[in-house]
Specification:
Length: about 375
């Protein structure tokens, strides 16, 4: 087990990379999908299940945990790994994105963000330094800089202002994080849908010599081709020997196309949130179990899956659970969805190693297009 944070590229196929991040709490096989554990829980799942599905790392949210139960309380209780019984790596988002998307009366200044909690309206200030302090109290293994994610569409001068502020905050977060060998602080590339600003942001962050780089400011409603175009201009400006993390992405199609452009890490609420809303991801595309067409269908979601949720329960039963709003419905569909996402990632990792990434993507895409029979 490594005492340092290291990243190795083990194989490439075009711009797709098969890599490995080693750190004291474990090894992360890339391309990696990080299940979202917002409030210290991957909703409806036991942590052992999440691990058994192949997740090497999960995501926690600074914003939610600082509001409830509080970062100092989690620290007193031994840190997030102990608190949530997840002994493997955890990446925490810095809170800025959630402040802008969830809190009330928020205000951004050079110093940081001020806002009121969406839970009880209590006032908070979060500076780059406080965000890193909170992530340290959570004992997070990979900590994200505080940044300002511009909602799209936006005027170029607005995108530029937020991108430049995020660069200054990256420098402050690097100073606040200091030197923690077994941990990492990732910078976040901003720049909206503007290629020139993306290149400037990536080049400036790369000059900070960080241990990893996230591509932020995307998956905010822009068309997929705009997101992919921004990856085409951003990834070449990032160091090839450091991990690249595309924040908030995405659908299986988003993921396969982003890996092809050089992305190594992903997080997205889609598999878990969709599971709670009756939607199943399968190798034949999406299946909406709310639909009455499943009411008498005795077939499982996927008879060939090694996940019991996909293999052992009839669609009729899943439809019944979803329609009845039974907790087991959300549990089984979340289990199925995370299992599908992790098997998708394993397939991508294998295909890169075998030098057949394009062929493999064609095969999985054909499965989705065939649709659910
Ligand atoms: C669901 N889409 C999405 N989740 C995100 C989280 C983020 N965190 C920090 N900074 C970001 O730019 C950022 C962008 C994001 N897009």
């Amino acid at each position: 087990m490594s005492t340092e944070f290291t990243f190795k590229v083990l194989a490439t196929d075009g711009k797709a990379r098969r890599g490995e991040i080693t750190m004291p709490r474990g090894t992360i096989r890339t391309p990696a999908f990080m299940p979202v554990g917002t409030g210290g829980t991957v909703k409806t799942m036991y942590m052992d299940q999440v691990r058994d599905l192949g997740a090497d790392i999960i995501l926690g949210n600074t914003y939610h945990l600082m509001l409830r139960p509080g970062a100092e309380r989690v620290a007193r209780l031994g840190g997030l790994h102990e608190f949530a019984r997840w002994p493997h790596p955890i990446l925490t988002d810095s809170g800025g994105f959630q402040v802008m998307s969830l809190s009330k009366l928020r205000k951004i200044t050079e110093k940081g963000v001020t806002f009121r909690s969406h839970i009880d309206g209590a006032p908070y200030e979060m500076s780059p330094e406080r965000s890193i302090e909170i992530q340290g109290l959570l004992d997070s293994d990979i900590q994200m800089q505080l940044d300002e994610c511009t909602a799209l569409p936006a005027k170029e001068r607005e995108i530029e202002r937020a991108m430049e502020l995020s660069l200054r905050w990256a420098d402050r977060c690097k100073t606040a994080f200091g030197d923690q060998p077994g941990k990492a602080m990732f910078g976040i590339v901003q720049g909206g849908d503007n290629a020139r600003l993306r290149e400037r942001s990536a080049q400036s962050l790369a000059s900070l010599g960080l241990k990893g780089y996230a591509v932020g400011g995307l998956a905010v409603g822009e068309p997929q081709d705009v997101m992919l175009d921004m990856l085409d201009v951003t990834c070449p400006e990032l160091p090839a020997d450091k991990p690249r993390y595309l924040m908030g992405v995405g659908t299986p199609d988003d993921i396969v196309k982003s890996v092809a452009r050089g992305i190594d890490m992903f997080d997205c609420v889609m598999p878990t949130r969709a599971g709670r809303h009756g939607l199943a991801y399968t190798r034949r595309g999406k299946v909406n179990l709310r639909n009455a067409r499943h009411a008498d269908d005795h077939r499982p979601l996927d008879e060939e899956s090694d996940c019991p949720a996909a293999r052992d329960y009839s669609r009729a039963y899943l439809h019944h659970l979803v329609r009845s709003q039974e907790a087991l419905g959300a549990m089984l569909l979340t289990w199925n969805n995370l299992s599908y996402y992790q098997s998708l990632m394993q397939g991508l990792r294998d295909a890169i190693e075998q030098g057949r990434y394009a062929e493999h993507v064609a095969e999985v895409s054909e499965g989705w297009a065939r649709g659910d029979i």
